[in-house]
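# nightly structure sweep
# worker-07 picked up a monomer target from the shared queue
# config: single-sequence mode, recycle default, output format = structure tokens
# input follows
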Amino acid sequence: MQTSLLTMPRDAWRLARPYFVSEERWPARIKLAAIVVLNLAMVGMDVVLNFWNRAFYNSLQDKDWGSFIDLLLTWQSGEKGFLPGFTGIAFLYIGVAVYRTYLNQWLQIEWRTWMTKQLTADWLADRAYYRIAMASSSEAGDTNDNPDQRISEDLRDYVASTLTLSLDFLSTVVTLFSFLFILWGLSGPVTLLGVTIPGFMVWAALAYAVVGTWLTHLVGRKLVNLSFRQQRVEADFRFSLMRLRENIEGVALYGGEEREAKGLHRMFTAIRDNWWRIMQRTKFLNALVAGYGQISAIFPIVVAAPRYFAGTLDLGGLTQTAGAFGSVQGAMSWFVTTYRELANYRATIDRLLLFRDAIDAARSSKDGVKEAEAAGVDFRIDGLNIRLPDGRVLLETDSLVLHRGRSVAFTGRSGSGKSTLFRALAGIWPFGTGSVQPGIGTKLFLPQRPYFPLGTLREVVSYPSSPTAYDDATIKTALAQVHLGELAEELGHTDNWAQRLSGGEQQRLALARALLLKPDWLFMDEATSALDSDTETAMLNVLKAELPATTMISITHRNSVAARQDVRMVLENGVLAG
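# output follows
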């Protein structure tokens, strides 16, 4: 993880550049340019207000009613130039402020939309999401956890902070140079120990800002790592709550409430402990920043007071000097006042870069079982070496051919690697080597525990096809064939189907998907294990009758299933025997 704030602009640009050179670059650049112009306009109005402030206070000191009214309502012109009235400045300021925020928010949502779409697409492409998850589960202390947080919260914070901090920094630089010359002209020379120092208050502001910046970095630099860790432990805690919600029945049946409570308490303790460390560090940082701000409010007046009391500086000049000093000192102290935001921003960038790099590594990885392009009618496996994450070999075979039209059953003892072989046949297992060359045609893989997306029953039973791929009559027929006809009238109903349906009902609903898709190859990993023997026999008969052109590959521990296949292969001690 990069913790240096010096490399932050480079890393932030690495994430931002793809958007500003993408197909949406011109609308994005135009919005950004408009926002920059409006920010510079705000700085320009601050400069005008600085001069207006001097003239206004001088009108009060001189008891000049005419100038007072002109400066409030209309304008004032004279030897020192034209000054607009406060009313005009205020209306213009409001308009610029409103549209600066409006365009900023517009660019934020467009930028975030583009980045979310791209990052999600890359995460799902080439099954990178699966490889990252498998790698994360096998490596202690992995930093590529909680992709949901990276895509939702971290992207949101990155886009908002990038615009806020970069535009604020730009305005700060322009403000610095705009008021630097004003302050130089107002402060005049000062003689100390026989040495005349021109523009004394400029140098005072610079020294004040340098000391404050150095102290702030010294106190607050540890916040970068603490902020990074806080984001992670918060995401871990949220993920644990989600897992509990998704498995409430299992927890209830086991009576595991006390165990779950202890686990959640342990995770929240990590949040509390890290937060306490952030509090301690922030306390010192806030004390420094607050003291720094309080002193800076009175410091320019104290320094300029001798000239005021000596009569060489009028009241308006004193307030203008104090205002210009505050703008210069504030600009020079930008690092001090935004240090906490910079620390959080650095942590957000690190998380996104780590996630981006993990996706790239997963997509370009040469490890794992690869899926080659289909070349013939048969399903071929070459050079297969399946390993566990710890390196232990589960299966090795030089060549294996699954012939089209001949059903196969893979059996073996529990733990022998049958389900891992199932993942290898799908071309998704990331540990090992070899290639699978699927036979020409559509394939459907049915795991032991079906996946149900959120949505209506029509969306669930049609998955992974579109909900409109099948008409209602076809779907209802498939449901009736798997003995779920009672659900036929609920196709448009949304529910948490993974919790509402029993394990057997879920597996039968997955079989309905096979009846709808009619794949050329159907791979089943204990896909009927939750069914009683009579129901299982009935379901297998339905599949055979309704899918006569489908080649079925079953991974099972039941002899009743294996006996119905044309070929039986046993996986034992890392060897397949037919």
